[in-house]
Write a structure and sequence with these properties.
binds manganese (II) ion; 5 helices; 13 strands; alpha/beta
Length: 244
């Protein structure tokens, strides 16, 4: 059988540890192409660039990628450029991440990591998004990814949904396991809370600090509950424009 071809993307930028270890895990299973933003491009959802041309550069990405491109655009731009121009072959799977910070609950709506996976899905490519806690390191993701990836590739998902995986912020030996088919919690992981200062010119400086939520108020079978309880959470996210 032909080995699978992967397109690996992210929203945190091509030079981040998260995309390196996702590409490395994929390279154990197949051929890897990388297309990622040239700079930090989080919370862009599925935004695309329409008024300016994109600048695309080949970048070294040893040892896992056959070829890697840095794109000065959004995560969805990277997917479009890779699929329709840059890649010499059509990928079997798109992998997005590993994001710095959870993509659970309402945060999914803002996520460039998920936006890139949705762009893949809308182009007919089976797609998956991976995220990790912004606290702690990526040791758990690194150690769990190879076997989890193999399981996900063999699990059929409807052509109108992506897999969304979140790694809790714990050491590999502290992880309590994988919880499948978690529901998306109807809530934010952090509550909106602005710190406000008035500037000399009369304008306000407002920064959303985000207050942690109380675990007792989180639905038990949800993605948020799983990661906050030390489990790897796997959910399906349905693409709004593919739901007939
Ligand atoms: Mn990000």
């Amino acid at each position: 059988m032909r080995i699978p071809v992967f397109l690996v993307v992210n929203d945190d930028g091509v030079d981040t540890e998260g995309i390196r270890l996702l590409a490395a895990a994929a390279a154990q299973l197949g051929e890897v192409y990388v297309a990622a933003p040239s700079r930090q491009s989080s919370a862009m959802s599925q935004r695309i660039t329409i008024y300016e041309p994109l600048t695309v550069r080949r970048v070294p990405f040893p040892p896992s990628a056959v070829c890697a491109w840095s794109v000065d655009g959004t995560p969805a731009d990277c997917v479009k450029a890779a699929l329709h121009e840059l890649m010499p072959v059509w990928p079997d799977f798109l992998l997005s991440g590993v994001n710095f910070g959870y993509n659970t609950g309402f945060d999914i709506a803002y996520s460039g990591t998920v936006g890139a996976a949705m762009e893949g899905l809308m182009n007919g490519v089976p797609s998956m998004a991976f995220s990790s806690s912004h606290e702690g390191d990526l040791a758990l993701a690194e150690c769990a990814l190879p076997s989890l990836l193999e399981r996900l590739l063999n699990r059929e998902v409807e052509r109108k949904a992506i897999w969304n995986v979140n790694f809790p912020g714990v050491r590999p030996e502290e992880c309590r396991g994988i919880l499948w088919n978690r529901r998306i919690a109807p809530m934010q992981l952090y509550l909106d809370a602005f710190s406000v200062e008035e500037r000399e010119d009369g304008s306000l400086s407002m920064k959303n600090q985000g207050l942690p939520i109380d675990l007792k108020r989180v639905p038990e079978n949800s993605d948020v509950h799983a990661v906050l309880s030390g489990y790897i959470s796997v959910s399906k996210i349905y693409c709004p424009v593919l739901q007939g």
